[in-house]
Design brief:
The protein is mainly α and 100 residues long. The protein has 4 helices and no strands. The protein is globular and about 50 Å long. It comes from Nonomuraea muscovyensis.
Length: 100
Amino acid sequence: MHLLVAGIAFLALVAACFVFARRFAAARRTGWAAFSGVTGAAFLATWSLIFALQGSRPANVAFAVAIALALAWASLLAAHHRPPTGDRVKPSETTGAQRR
């Protein structure tokens, strides 16, 4: 069960990387497009190595590096899409609490 769910999540991550790579390329954001594409390709390649070279220390290390890269990509992508400071919603506006 663990491998099935992990496989679905990993493929979704790779797909997201390539979707964002294409989106950024269309917007002429070449740095983000390259970062997204390289992250997706590296993750897919190293994940494949885990299966092809079972028990291989270099494959495990490469996959760990790819995981770190994917986490960095997701974090930076979230920060990139975060609204500017002045546009954020205040907690009191989302809870329905009234100001006094």
